[in-house]
Amino acid sequence: MEYFLQQLINGLTLGAVYGLIAIGYTMVYGIVGMINFAHGDIYMIGAFNALICFLVLGVAGITWVPLALLIVLIVSVVLTSVYGWSVERIAYRPLRGQSRLAPLISAIGMSIFLQNYVLLLHGARGKPLRAPISGGFTLMEHDGFTVQLSFVQMGIIGITVLLMLGFTYVITQTKLGRQQRACEQDMKMASLLGVDINRTISVTFVLGAGLAAVAGMMVTMYYGVIDFYIGFVAGIKAFTAAVLGGIGSLPGAMLGGLLIGLIEVFWSGYFTVEYKDVAAFSVLVLVLIFRPTGLLGRPEVEKV
Amino acid sequence: MAANATSTSPAIGVAATLDWPEILKTAVFAAAITFLLAISIVGVETQSGPGGLTLSTRFPEVAIAVVGVFFGSMALSLIRGGYPVPAMIGAGLVTGVLLVVLVLEAENPSLKYLLPFQAVVIDWGAVIIPAIICVRAAQVAWRARRQATGAGDTAIGIQIGGLARRLMPWVGLIMVVVAIALPWLPFGSSQRKIIDICTLVLTYIMLGWGLNIVVGLAGLLDLGYVAFYAVGAYSYAMLGANFGWSFWICLPLAGIFAASFGVLLGFPVLRLRGDYLAIVTLGFGEMVRIILINWWWVTGGPNGINKVARPSFFGFTFERTAPEGHRTVYDLFSSVFGQEFTYNPYWRVVFLYYLILACALVTNVFTLRVRRMPLGRAWEALREDETACRALGINPTNTKLTAFAVGAMFAGFAGSFFGARQGFVSPESFVFIESAVILAIVVLGGLGSQVGIVLAAIVLIGLPELFRELKDYRMLAFGMGMVLIMIWRPGGLLAHRDPTIRLPKDPAKPKSPA
Prior knowledge:
With 304 residues, chain A is mainly alpha-helical. Helix content of chain A is 73%, strand content 6%.
């Protein structure tokens, strides 16, 4: 029971991170209809930005934790959003209106570029960070096994919930959200009605990159070590999560992220660590057999 | 970074008035973006030390990048505004100075301070950008002059495209002849290296042609193609190592195994469309790799399988001495040609080269022929419209399964060749990036264009092999190259595709008004 509870907490934390990244995939897919393969690497850039910011703050002598966290959060979100914007501007915008495969290849190229860019500038070795926050609550103690809920985990789950609420508000209530939904339904019609499509798509990429940066920052604090390759694995998992939940659906992305996180953690906890990715992909395949458009995805209606 | 903005066609030839505030605004914006991009990742270097991470700064590089982007953006605005000549001169000057310094620097190290970056490779990269702007400006200026003098305005690209189309049947033939003659051409000491690179390129050409059946003909986006390649390589390695079966028995078996895996993957994903299929195939590729790593008592785990048997020349070995009851190739040649042949490892390299050439050509001929068969036509019809296919009585399930199986089979052949050539197989060779590269070859070549795939494989595999000294920079340029080629030619290098079937030209029968 205690073991189960601990795994549940770990799974939810991991799932929250996947969910945040998955939202970036699902939003871009919903509006532009492309798989943004570089999104995982944007998350990696976000983690590096956060790491560098932590280190610079350490050198600058700002050690009051809440202030430092706030500064890191803002700086890494802003800088990473610029990456999201630039990737869209350089690699995707010139290809708008081309076949579905052209932006995909461009995105894969961008992903390779970003990985090697960070590899060249910062080296291949993992970058450790001393945890800025440590400690946590002990929820339960039984037979020498303690169930821990660390402050970082609480922070991750809390921030994710807050961001999800904020995001739902933006998408459903604001002008920007309305424009995004309009572009998702019919881009040409939306532009005829005065929606600036380029701007809307850029903002979508910026928002996605911002969420990825938050995820990157939280992972840097949670695991305490990052390298240039973390974006690939996390990207694939988050994309799997987005598809599992139904690509194009925001709640679906979050649900998918949580499911993938839970599956991974429980599989590692009760079976074998080595095959946790196999388990995650197998669940994806099983779900897609019975619901070909994911858990919360709308069925595609094809007009002839 | 604003290099892509040149695609909008300016009002050439008309002396437009320049909107300086706008140009400055664009340039400042681009420079600000560059600053934000570079300030943390480039500007601060993290170094792993014994007591944790330490920092060092690289602010001069950031400043140079910002200034460079500022002027680059202005040059591009000038080109677009109808004043290409000043942009050309400016970019040309920068290129020239950098080039001269780079060339002289080798003998005169004090010039190093004139270079923008510390790493020479990055400096060379930095030369390319003003050079491209200069060439682009010259192109625009030249076109403006031609228009002003009233010369014909057929874009060179279209002319070349038309020429290429007419020559296409011959290009293929010439390529094959050159490929066959290649081992006999005098390259001197680099002969062996060239053959090795060509063998590698041919492996990717074969993989590209194989994947083209799935992606180009049947229109199924497969991001896990490397899984079948892995299945082929491991089937040969395991059968050869455990049972001592020869390459020629294992080659068809590897194809069959890979094809069965294709069907295995095909079954659950048949109902999926488009990008759902992409993620499932990607997941499948990762699953195969993870299983190869962790099922170590069968696959050798991360170390893979060593000592994969080398292929023989139809039973005649390439080793110095033949095993009991066998003969070496050199004995065979000596007896056939009546001339003394001695042990020479080069022969095996040439043999492997011809082997993969033959395999690749078989793939190509298969594709060309199958497009004229009902099966191939069904694939292409399925790609265009699945609903219409169902209505016409084509069974989408079987059609998709055959596409997966046939594509996987060729990957299996290529895989077993790969195992035979390397002499060992390990999961490291079958990572996702390989799938991505093969897919990039297919798409960059121009979907469905067989010659285009050859070109793309040469560009993506052959060129980076030639620049091996650049190490990590190679992959950086590789990624950027993929993006740039895609932007430059969104439909692929040879975007043209002949219609599979033409209506007979019959003047008596007018075209039905649609």
